[in-house]
Design a protein that fits this description.
By secondary structure, the protein is α+β, with helices and mostly antiparallel strands. The chain contains four helices and seven strands; from the N terminus they run αβααββββββα.
């Protein structure tokens, strides 16, 4: 195999990896959408969406990946094309689920965050996230689930939990 064939194999491999990552997220998107829609059916929930900045970041990564592909084609650089293909496909897939992963739905009795439903009474405590202390907090349930949420979502849930325990 010559130089061109080796690099073409790399590009094809990276596109295949990117497609696998995209389809995994697409499958997760369909499952989350179905779970959330079923949970919301016929019930009244308030909604707090904190996905905007994450979505913007993911779109920037998609643009960077697409730019890398274009630059790689112009420079005949197969490694750059490969990297761009993986980034583009991976972050398109991530962008599918960001709206479900970073949205809080809450009612008088329970909330849905990160695709998980939780009653206020089952929240044991809240913990700071080790690497994202300023941005995210986790709700820890009595059965050991840890549900990440934004600071504002945490404030909404904490207030409801305090009211339910009185």
């Amino acid at each position: 195999m010559g130089f061109f064939e080796n690099n073409l194999v790399l590009v094809i491999f990276c596109i295949a990896v990117g497609m696998i990552m995209f389809f995994v997220r697409f499958k997760e998107y369909r499952q989350m959408k179905e779970t959330i829609n079923t949970a919301l059916e016929g019930k009244h929930y308030e909604k707090y969406d904190y996905s905007r900045w994450v979505r913007v970041l993911y779109v920037l990564f998609v643009c960077f990946g697409a730019t890398s592909i274009a630059y790689g084609v112009m420079q005949n650089d197969f490694e750059t094309i490969s990297m761009g293909a993986v980034l583009t496909l991976m972050f398109i897939g991530e962008n599918l689920i960001v709206g479900y992963r970073y949205t809080l739905y809450y009612s008088d009795t329970h909330f849905i965050a990160g695709g998980k439903m939780c009653r206020y009474k089952s929240v044991k405590d809240f913990e700071e996230m080790k690497y994202f202390k300023l941005a995210f907090v986790r709700a820890v349930t009595f059965n050991g689930d840890k549900i990440p949420m934004s600071r504002k979502a945490y404030e909404l849930i904490k207030e409801q939990c305090i009211q339910r325990r009185k």
